[in-house]
Amino acid sequence: MEDENPFREEDLAIRNRPEACTLVIFGATGDLTHRKLIPALYNLAADGDLPAGMRVIGFARREKSDEEFREGLEKQNRENSRQDHDDALWETFSQSISYHQANFTDAEGYESLNEKLLELEKAGGTKNRMFYIASAPEYFDDILLQLGSAKLNKPAEGAWARVVVEKPFGKNLKTAQHLNKIVSETFPEADTYRIDHYLGKETAQNIMVLRFANALFELLWNNRCIDHVQLTCAEHLGMEGGRGGYYDKSGAMRDMVQNHLLQLLSLIAMEPPIDLSADGVRDEKVKIFKSLRPIRTIEDVSKNVIRAQYTADTVNGEDVVGYRREDRVNPGSMTETYVGLRIMIDNWRWEGVPFYVRMGKRLPKKTTEISIHFKDAPGVLFNSLPGAEIVPGNVLVIRIQPDEGISLGIRSKLPGPSARLQPVKMDFRYQTAFRKSSPEAYERLLLDAMAGDATLFARKDEVETAWQFVDAIEDAWHKSDDPPVMAEYPAGSWGPKEADDLLERDGRKWRRL
Ligand code: BG6
Question: Where in the chain is the domain with CATH 3.30.360.10?
């Protein structure tokens, strides 16, 4: 029957084909455009994946000519491109990039943008438009409202108009709901793409394939076989490049946990979706967000959440200042640079399985991984062997970045006459298996938005339910008279002692990375 249905196949083919558009980037002079978006487009062009006729208009406040804009982009592309910068390719690629100087709040700027677009379109260019909001978050509302007033959100016949919204998507549930309201008054949900760049990472996309295309793992993927799960996102960076201004108002919980880490957790925990459509997948992720056991009272928060700030020390041989001494950070700041959490998912599959999540700045290295710790085998046969009790059991490690791959730790017999157990690994490495570097997250996400596929973007209800979970903890930290303590950890260490205690209380330990 499947084969006889021509509609589904055609539908999939259309959904997956990226179409050329004019990409208007708001906040085009910023870091994201220079370090991520333009290099992503350049690499798509280098791989022959960029649809022909694609154009970019950078919209920002600073005075700049097209030429100056392109020069700045070229410089950064040399430093940030995944593949080597090729002068000839850049020359052709950059011809499709221009600059539009205007204030985000100024209606005239949008009218002149419209004229520019109409002119390009009259000259035979694509009529599809993609508006990418990558400005400072305080302008998101204005930009959306102005796009609506100038009717830029209304596509020409046979064309589409889409909006991509960068993070942060609000700073709590209330502001996220407000932003969602403005977005939905301007663009239909189907044309709205809320970025979470972790979902574009190749290894994050592979989680569903690992689980649902291999019978082996899914059979064990439940509270009968899994003891607990750990999710670590470590960064060695601190507040370089003036980031302290943004970060001090945000903190690790809002900056990384509400979005990237909860998204990864939902991919690990979700049920198989009914199909691979955007809503099929997102329906299942939302169910996980709704099943997160709320951590609400001060007592709950103190028991299940650790917050901490780094203090001055050495990272990779370099002396660094403590968080409160960082540029643009309030010297009395109560913003966390580390979070450790014990999360419970109240559903059939996961009852009783803790998900331990940690995220920190200024840790010893940059690495993101998820480890699934399986329950121990019955010990009747081998537990009496020397050293058996200290050999770790089965751990499945999904390395999101760097050194992308998956490994399974198993116990083996040490060769030779003595009966001893030894931990060994079955290891899959992307670099060895596929012999090429994985595309950057933004390459995949831009391509998907051009193809009209929102699977790897967060839906309205995902964002809101994730905020609901995080807000309760933030409230306990910031609105109570007797808030839980702010712990400390030396820069370059693996975090505060309190985070170790969080697991030790349950008889467990963080995996050594
Ligand atoms: C961003 C956060 O979303 O992700 C940053 O705002 C963080 O604080 C960054 O450094 C990490 O992304 P990646 O892809 O380098 O792991």
Answer: 199-440+459-504
**Residue 268: which residues within 8 A CB-CB, separation 6 or more?**
207, 229, 231, 355, 370, 372
CATH number of the structural domain 9-194? 3.40.50.720
Name the fold adopted by 199-440+459-504: Dihydrodipicolinate Reductase; domain 2 (3.30.360)
Closest residue by Cα to residue 292 from 264, 271, 272, 269:
269
Q: Based on the number of CB atoms within 10 Å of its own CB, is 193 exposed (0-12), middle (13-18) or buried (19 or more)?
A: buried
Nearest residue (CA) to ligand 1, atom 13: 198
Quick: pLDDT tens for 406-452: 999 998 888 888 778 888 999 999 988 888 778 999 999 999 999 99
What's the pTM? 0.93
Ligand 1 centroid, distance to 493 Cα (angstroms): 19
Peptide bond preceding 402: is omega within 30 degrees of 0, i.e. cis? yes
Where do you find CATH 3.40.50.720 in the chain?
Answer: 9-194
- Which protein residues touch ligand 1 with a CB less than 6 Å away? 167, 197, 235, 255-256
Atom of ligand 1 nearest to the CA of 235: 10
Q: Is 260 a catalytic residue?
A: yes
